[in-house]
Design brief:
Two copies of one chain form a homodimer.
Chain A (H helix, E strand, L loop, with lengths): L2 H15 L5 H7 L5 H27 L4 H15 L7 H11 L4 H6 L5 H16 L2 H6 L7 H15 L9 H24 L3 H29 L16
Helix pairs in contact in A: 1-10, 1-11, 3-4, 3-5, 3-7, 3-11, 5-10, 7-11, 9-10
């Protein structure tokens, strides 16, 4: 494949497998969830948000290319914050605060679904263990993130009286951060995956990452949409 | 042990095992090496310098404490640079440039001694695999670094006509960076290693790190001080 054909294949994976197509997101953005269900989503998604800096540090930890490390490190700061910049994880906690969840409980991850933790840690381990170009390619879901963030901002603000503009700052910031990061990662993958084997691996890396995101919504949908499915120990709306 | 007793034990390890006591350093600082031997030292030590950001990223990659990550990340930037700040690795390359070594050859690590690479990668893996407090404690050789850097700056400037002030900037910068970092890591270890098992592990972590540094000088001393010991493929003064 030429680099541009690789890009087309990557975009086709997003079109088919990105989690904007998941039924749970349609419920979330369409105002079909109650507050407890939105709490469950935000609490579980915190596990993903808070793992992103570890994932990006795992990438740096096996990267011998100083220029790539210098470029990539800002992703850790975007999420963790640095100096006066609060960072994305703090902005996510503003959302969970706004939803009435106890911050220490959220950070403890004790109420998260086991599937959430498994999926998130599988992502950290993937980046730690696979080739560098696969690790970079696994971030390419960010190519498709602005669309879902825009839908989410408008859908959630419109449909839920417990969601206000202040608590949606995480998504607003990502509208500018994600495209810059995705563009860099896409060019890196196109430039560095030049054999059929490497290109296949890059496509598989993006599919893997789509699965990481999709599986989290499967678990939320199973546990919180139909009654009676919340596993032992997981967050129960109204009880935390 | 109380936290202060632990600190005393840590400092005693430094006094006994830090590589300022190694015969190779006495030769280096005392002006007893020729230019080729100083080149061999700088080229091998580059492998250590360039691994430090990967080591610190490995620590971040397994750290679930956002506050600790926010504190620790500046170490990566100190070495890799960030934005306009060139960073310690670049300053090290100014030293190897000044010694007349080809920069691409240095960065390739192809001329490094196998023992150097083994020791350095053992350090990265230690930080990746051990407990967080052990990973932090393994950085505590920085408690003893300012003394050796001062000796090195004065000794090398005084004793070698091929060493000028410009190429010693790496060490000058570390005189302010290392004490700040060491102080933080020491307080972290004292606060977080409160069981006998954890305290023993912290002491062993510092011994391990002293070994990582010492072994690199053993290898240099063996290969470059007595004639005839340079292993196949390693840097040969006058040939690179």
């Amino acid at each position: 494949m030429s680099p541009d054909e690789l890009e087309q294949e990557l975009r086709a994976i997003g079109a088919a497998q990105y989690h904007d197509r998941h039924p749970f997101h349609k419920l979330l953005h369409g105002g079909k969830l109650n507050k407890g269900q939105v709490q469950a989503w935000a609490l579980n998604r915190y596990c993903y948000q808070s793992a992103v800096p570890r994932k990006d540090a795992a990438l740096l930890s096996r990267c011998h290319d100083r220029e790539l490390r210098r470029e990539w490190i800002h992703r850790i700061m975007d999420h963790d914050g640095f100096g006066d910049e609060e960072g994305g994880i703090e902005r996510w906690l503003v959302l969970t605060d706004g939803l009435g969840l106890d911050r220490d409980y959220v950070i403890s991850r004790k109420g998260a679904l086991p599937e959430t933790i498994f999926a998130v840690e599988a992502y950290v381990n993937f980046v730690r263990e696979k080739t560098l170009v696969e690790a970079v390619a696994s971030s390419l879901t960010e190519l498709f993130a602005p669309k879902i963030h825009k839908e989410r901002i408008s859908g959630m603000l419109e449909n839920y009286d417990f969601i206000s503009d202040d608590v949606m700052q995480y998504f607003k910031r990502r509208l500018t951060q994600a495209p810059r990061d995705a563009e860099f990662a896409l060019e890196y993958a196109k430039k560095n995956a030049r054999t059929p084997e490497a290109q296949t691996a890059v496509l598989e890396a993006l599919k893997f990452k789509c699965n990481v995101l999709w599986a989290q919504l499967d678990a939320l949908h199973y546990a919180y949409v139909e009654p009676g499915n919340i596993p032992p120990g997981a967050f129960v709306p109204g009880e935390a």
